[in-house]
Every structure is written in structure tokens, then in C-alpha cells.
């Protein structure tokens, strides 16, 4: 007590299952006050690595904007934060400080860092995995700090997929990385992998003039984190199976494959670092058939600090079998909403892949359905982007793909599909 | 031996599993038998919520009177309630069954049983106790559409005399001699035990109904306790035992299965109530089951 933000865990579900019901769904809402009242410990230490793509494609206006953005990020660092600036090509290099360590942010070190950033030039290839591995080496010297990297790139990753995957696996769970794609030559799929492996966000900076603002916002968010790394510890009964666990708000991140076994019935799933914020998770447990009237705890969820094993919040996901259809067919609004948001994301991803592969019928069907879901769930921005890719006749409902889609619109649709809307009171998405 | 949760090997004398820290002497689970029931009442191995005192409970008085209430197999919760008290040498029993179509019927039955039993044990008469219980249940309602309701049957046993009050379809029966220790199994129909149409009342061998349900032919009850039952009067009855026997007070969760049932002889009230419960559950356990047995007119264990 005292040196921790307060966490609350709220569970939304319909616990009633029909007699043949085997799937229990629940939405977990975890909120943190973020406020820390210090007793014995100082405010959490933070370690920040800023990674700037300096490959050849960045030359000209882009490298100027990137230098400006990196300087903005350095200015946003609060005093005392350990930091470094890396430049990334087919290799990774520490631009500031000298050597292979982080330095504490002071007015003097910030000035030196900005001077070093001003000398950055664009030349070479792109090996994102190498950049992350160097960031990991620097951050690993600060195991107790909230470790974060911010990465920007404008191009396709040139390194082999296995090297890239190996680097992501190596860094996973060791720091959080938010990434930014600039221009229309980068592949959202690559940065999506970074976001999924390192529990961060990834965004499209459509106008390179906005890059500095994106850097400042990400750095500020990172500076607002007060708890380094929390795990969601989930128990399910011996005869049950955790079908999936996903973060569903503010963005979709599938955590199912990130399990670390605690015991045969219990696993830890990483959630990254926390500030004052609210996130939602969707849990699905497959349970064995149950007797009418009997109630089970189908899931036991605890938010845990892995270093101290301290439980910050906990809750039960329940299941109870009934032959009352009025009870078992009632669908929880939040479960339905986020099931729809996940489906929208999948439809967009499948639709865009099919479109790229020339499968016109599949692409048309998926994207038209996505257009409908987006409108129904209050995703006006997504619906507007879908309108630029697929055209739906409002009277006949007939859909066709639009020719000559702006590449930037496509990237924005692709990257934006992981962002979910919240369920408003009254059940309409927003 | 292995830990019920993580399956790591543990030693006989260990208090906690060395691998996962789980306590090894936790209560055993009613469903999977693992010693893994946690403080919240869930099994940490199979997840099953353990029955609470409201789900199933037994009461035994010094004189041998016994009561059991049980959730049954098909209902999510137990909306039956019972109260069984001694008042000096007398015994007071009240059994109520929450009306399934009313809200918070479990609260209604619990409150009615407790209120009436306290009143009867305090020396009030049957009609007054009924009225107090009825008023208490009526006060649970927040509006005419939110009116918890329950049935009612009460019995006060004084020596070999019984006074009974009821509303609804919860019942009292007289089980003469044969079903008590030392008695003989009854031969043929019980004394006074045939109705006008010649059938055995209640359909069970060896028992005499003491109450008449307030029901219409389609099965709906016509009297109950609740805000929507203003002016309901209980039926009252006095009964004198002409020999040793057991007074059975029960809800429809039991009596629906008594058709053709032969009460086994030579049981204590507690053993017989357990056996009756088993019979109700074996027969389907469709409803909550509540059984109270009070010995009178002789020596009972």
C-alpha cells in the first residue's frame, strides 16, 4: 500500500450457459488510478530508447522531420529518465550518449542529444530487428525501470523474416515498444509484428509534418507510466481450457500465445506497463459439460506484479448451467460489442489481403461486411476509410471494389483496424 | 501424494505445496474430492462452487426432531426455508417455499420462516405468527410488480398434540408408529387414511395428510404470503396423535415424489429425513426439497 496506484478489475459477462453450453465469455475492465503516493520508493525509474530510421529512403525532407521529431521526444523526457538515441539502418548505432549505456536526462544531456540528432544523415538499409536488439541491450541494464522504446521507420524491413522473428522473440516481454510508420512505402504487417511482440501501439503518420507531434505524444504517454510490468494471471479449472485472452481496448492485442505457465492450471499473460488508464480484455474459457443448476468458477483472474507476486486486483469469471432459455440466451452487451470489433478487424485484414492477392470476390464481400459493421458500431472514421476502398450501393446493397485506391488510405485502414470503439451506455458503440 | 492444484509431489505432513504454495489441508470439494476449496467457496481444481448453508442444511434438536433443506438438482438456488426450534418441551417448525414467479422469493421464505418461528417460540398463537410473517414478507415489496412471495406451513408440537397453520401447497403429514424406531410397519391403510374416493391420501403408504393445498385444478396456488396476498387467512388445524409417530412437514419438492413411496420403518427422524431427501433427488430433484420430521407420542432417538 501507499506506493502503488490503485487498480480495479471489473468483469462483465452472462454467467448462464444452456445445458450444452461449453464457452464462457467475459470482458475484464482493468482501471488504474495511476496516482502514486511515495513512501519508501522513489517514483518509478524510466528508461527510454528513441530509434530513428536513417536508411537511404529517409533522405531529403523526411530526415529533417525525423530529426525534429527525435529532438521533440528528447525534450519531452523528464529529468532523471535514462535514455539513448539510436539511428537505424541495416545496423543499429548509438547516436547519443557515447558508448553502450543510457544516460540520465538533464538539461545538459538533452542539449547534447539534440546536437547529435542534428547531425543524423540518411544512408543505408533497414533492419528493424537489429535496432530492437540494440535497444534491448541498453535497456536490460535497468531491470527495475519502466522500459520503453519508440521506433519510427519509413521503409520495408530488408532483413530476413527469421532474423526479424528471432529479434522480436528475444525482446518480447523485456520492454514495450510503440512504433510509427511514415510515408506510404512501409508495410503495416512488419510494425504490427513489433506491436504484438512488444505490447505497443503502431500508428501511421500520414503527414510527415505531424511526426514530431506523434513522438511527443508517445514519449509523454510513456513518461506517465507508473508501474513497470504487470501480468494477468489466469486460472481455469483442470478440465477446462483457456480458448483465448485478448486485449480489446484501446487496441486489439491477442495475448493467448504469450502464456508463461505458473502451474498446470494457471498462466501469466503480460500486459506491459501501466499509467492512469483503463483497458479491456476479452476472455473465453471452454468448460466441460455441467449439471443443471451447478455453478463453477470458470476463470480466476489476478493482476499481479511479477517481481513481488503482489496481487493488485482480482475477479471471478463464473458459469452456471440452466434450462431457462431467457437466462442463457441473454447476450452481454460488452461481450457482443468486442466480439464485433474483433470481427471488424479480421474482416478488414482478410479483405485487404484478398484485395492484394487479386481475390476480388472475397475482398468485396469482406470489406462490404466490414463497412456495415463499422457503421453499426460507431466507427465513423473506419467507415469513411472503407468507403474509399469499397463502394456499396445503398439501395441494392451491391458492393464493388473501387479502382485506384490511395495507398495512404489503404495503410490508414490497415493500421487503424486494431483500434476499437468503446461501448457507450445504452449499447451503441462509439 | 501430489498437490491438488499443481500436481507436484508433496509429503504427507506438509501443510503447503512447496512448488505452488497451495495449502494442502483445505476443505474437500463436494464435486471432485480434491482438498482444494478456497476461502471464497470455489474448488481450486475443478472450479465448482461449494454448496452454501442456504443450498443445503441440516438441523437436529435434542429431542430428535430433524430438518433438511436442499437446493435439489435443477434449481439455481434454494428458495425453500425452514426453521426448527424447541420451546421448552414443545417443538416449533415452520417451512416456506418461495413462489417461483415472484422476485427474491428466497428472501421471502427465509424471512417468513424466521419471523413465524420466533413468534411461535415466543408463545404467540398460530394466527398471530402467520400474520406477523405475512406482514414481514409484504414489506419486502418495493412495488406491486416487485412483491416477493412464499407458501407457509407451521406446526407446534406439544406432547401428543399438534397445531398446524398453512397457506399454499406446503404440507404436513402424520406418519403413524410404523416409521419410528420400535414401531411395527403398518398393515393396510393407515387409520383414518382414506379419502372419499377411496385412494390413499398423498398416494404414499403409511402417511396421513393433515393439510389441504390451496390450489386450483391447473396447479396454481391460491394462497401465499406477500404484498399481493392481502387478506389471506391461514387454514388452521389441531391434531391429536393416538400413538407414537412422526409429524412430517415438507415442501412440494418432497411430496411430489411420495406417490407410491413406502416409508421405511425403524429410522430416526434424521436418518429418515436424509433418506427422503435421497429419494427426492433420485426421483429427479426438480424443485427445492425441505423436510422436517418431529417425533411425538412416544420415545424417539
Automatic annotation (TrEMBL), chain A:
- Lineage of the source organism? Bacteria, Bacillati, Actinomycetota, Actinomycetes, Streptosporangiales
Q: Where is the VWFA domain?
A: 47-218
Task: Quote the InterPro entries the UniProt record gives.
Answer: CLCR, VWA_3_C, VWF_A, vWFA_dom_sf
Gene source species:
Nonomuraea indica
Q: Name one Pfam family in it.
A: VWA_3
Question: Per its UniProt entry, which superkingdom is the organism in?
Answer: Bacteria
The record's section on CDD domains has: vWFA
Q: What is this protein called?
A: VWA domain-containing protein
